[in-house]
Amino acid sequence: MSQQSVVARLRTARSGSRPRKSNGRPPWMERPHWYGQGTKALALAVLTVIVLYPFVLAIGTSLAGREELNANGGYVLLPHHPTLEAYRVILSGGVVTQAALVSICITLIGTALSLACTVMIAYGTSRPGTVLGKPILLMVLGTFLFAPGIIPTYLAVQQFKMLDTYAALILPVLLNAFNIVVVRSFFQSIPEELYDAARIDGAGEVTVLFRIVLPLSKAVLAVVGLFYAVGYWNSFFNAVLYLNDAGKFPIQVILRSYVLNGQSINASAMGVHAVPPATSLQMAVLIIAIVPIFCVYPFLQKFFVKGVLTGAVKG
Amino acid sequence: MAKSPVTAVRPPVPQPRDPDEADRPAGRKDKRNRLRQPLRHRLKRDRALLLFCLPGVLYFALFFYLPLAGNVIAFQDYQPFLGFKQSPFVGLANFTALLAEPEFWSAVSNTLQITAIQLLLYFPAPIALALLLNSLISEKIKRFIQTVVYLPHFLSWVVVVAMFKQVLGGAGSVTTLLMEHGVSIGNVMTDPGTFKLLITAQAIWKDCGWGTIIFLASIASIDMGQYESAAMDGAGWLRRIWHITLPGIRPVILMLLILRLGDILSVGFEQILLQRDAVGPDASEVMDTYVYFHGVVDGDWGMSTAAGLMKGVIGFALILAANKLAHRFGEQGVYR
Question: What is the pLDDT of residue B4?
């Protein structure tokens, strides 16, 4: 038997045995009456519809043409003749395109910076016996108890001359104590022997971090990275607070002015002549504001429960 | 835990943590000497780790502890062109002025009302949903429902409010549909009377599913044997939930309740800011929006900082008190 097939068999055996354990009715649990099951099914169905209906409605409306919207009173669940006209107009350069680009850049740069700093401080405080390790950790944990308040933070950002710069969207929210605690407790759960072995082989702290710790921490980095990325992508208040220049607004601020404040999306702002119906455009902006989350969500879903629990137990 | 006689008899087994410690002669003096290693040497030994911490420490110092100290302007007549150093100190004048302000009390009252409604409706929702999810036998259905209900947590408040507007707003799809069938609910999004219920509904829609994670995990850690023996004694499903599941997750419920208590004065800032214009400040002004509008927008720095500081201090005191209370009940609480 070749080595590969053994690995494959082991893999199927492992993945196969996991769900079987929790499947099936426990011996003490009797089958509920049909009306009990019916109520439960109904509750779950209603729940699913309540959560998913707005998404379907937004997607449907953004894809609908003018006649169909008019015939349906402004909203379409499932368009018969879907058209990407609204997206084409919005993404053909102009305010929304600019805002989406800003959001993408902020999210990418911010997440990378946040993740790097989080890993570094988490690793620095996770080794036992470091000088100043305790005070630094207390400094991080102290942020759980107090919040500096909106005005003092605003004044600090102002003093640092960061008003109206993109840095104001990243630096004031660079780190989060909860995420640091999650990463740190994961680093501490790595067996001490691995650290010792690497050190005996002459590895310095940087080598240990990059060659031993990080490769083992992909799951927790994915979770924490997701939390940071969602935070940056969704950031709205900091932009309202620190930015005056409308040209620098990220997508969430644009979404508010077009959808909530009813600012009309005119042709000149989009850089085109003919404009699709307003509701289609609004819903298209809405969809653009959530597409990135839809894209990463399925891949990271299996990780985040674990991330939340690590933080909850230790924090 | 009570000291058992066994541990008293058995000699303590030394567990050296530091690998170097094992091959040294174990002496108290020696250990003290090692700790007394000059700080210079220890700093040199750990310089890589300390460098790793540097950006984080800088961040917390500049954007957390420095602004925390900046709360002194609550006691000043702060003038932006004079700065912290030159602005005159006015003692508690900002606080007394604040307490005489009816708008501030209206904000406090709105905040407390919203907190009360949320404790009543929003807090138990994830527990109920977790019980429902836990009762599902089919792993596939369970996973599907979880995927669906976790999703809204990742949306921004702008998106959530926009979605509510297109469904329940004056020209929203459900409003229009109900209208066609002769039921008029008006424009829920701009009705000051139901505003507090509306934002609670939004909070439930967004975060109820996400909140189940921690409850599901603590339900899963309950010993199955308890259910089995309860069932043998003739306990139905309702009794098993009441006498086993709920007591089993009591520590987690209490912990989250304590955390919520510390946040009693901060209720959905972004969420309310987004909808304040639609319903007017009378129904929607809370402490955070009060601070924002009077400070950043109107430039009344000293007084709004005083409001923010008051909120922070009360929240901190509430956490301490609630944690004490939890210990009194014999629970773990958040910290010891």
Answer: 42
C-alpha dihedral sign at A8, A10, A16, A19: negative
Distance from CA of A8 to the nearest CA of B (A): 24
Q: How confident is the model at residue A266 (pLDDT cuts 50, 70, 90)?
A: low
- Asked if A121 and A315 count as a contact pair (C-beta separation under 8 A), the reply is no
The Cα-based distances of B11 to A195, B6, B79 in angstroms read: 30, 10, 68
3-state DSSP call for residue B179? helix
Residues A158 and B90: beta-carbon distance below 8 Å: no
Testing the interface with B: which of A78, A151, A163, A290 to mutate, by most B Cβ within 10 A?
A151
Torsion angle of C-alpha atoms A118, A144, B271, B113, degrees rounded to 10: 170
Six-digit token string for B64: 């957390």
**Dihedral of the alpha carbons of A93, A94, A97, A100, in degrees to the nearest 10:** 160
Strands (E), chain A: none
Q: Which two tokens stand for residue B48?
A: 């890589």
pTM here is 0.84
* Facing B139 at nearest CB: one of A19, A61, A124: A19
Contact B274/A at CB under 8 A: yes
Window 213-272 of B: residues touching A by CB (8 A cutoff) are: 213-214, 217, 224, 227-228, 230-232, 237, 269-270
DSSP string, A181-204: HHHHHHHHHS-HHHHHHHHHTT--
State both tokens at A70. 């008019």
pLDDT 10s digits, B51-71:
999 999 999 999 999 999 989
How high is the pLDDT of residue B5? 41
Output the furthest CA–CA distance in chain B (Å, rounded): 89
Q: How many CB atoms lie within 10 A of CB A302?
A: 12
Q: Which residues contact B96 (CB under 8 A, 6 or more apart)?
A: none
H and E: helices and strands count for chain A: 17, 0
Q: How many CB atoms within 10 Å of residue A274? A: 8
More confident residue, A34 or B123: B123
Contact between residue B273 and residue B44 where contact means Cβ atoms under 8 Å apart: no
Residues in chain A with CB shorter than 8 Å from the CB of B305 are 149, 151-152
Query: What is the pLDDT at residue A47?
Result: 94
A155 touches chain B (CB under 8 A): yes
Beta bridge partners of B76: B89
User: Cα–Cα–Cα angle for B130, B132, B137, nearest 5°?
Assistant: 110
Q: Which residues of A262-271 are buried (b: 16+ CB within 10 A; e: fewer)?
A: eeebeeeebe
In contact, A114 and A175? CB cutoff 8 Å: yes
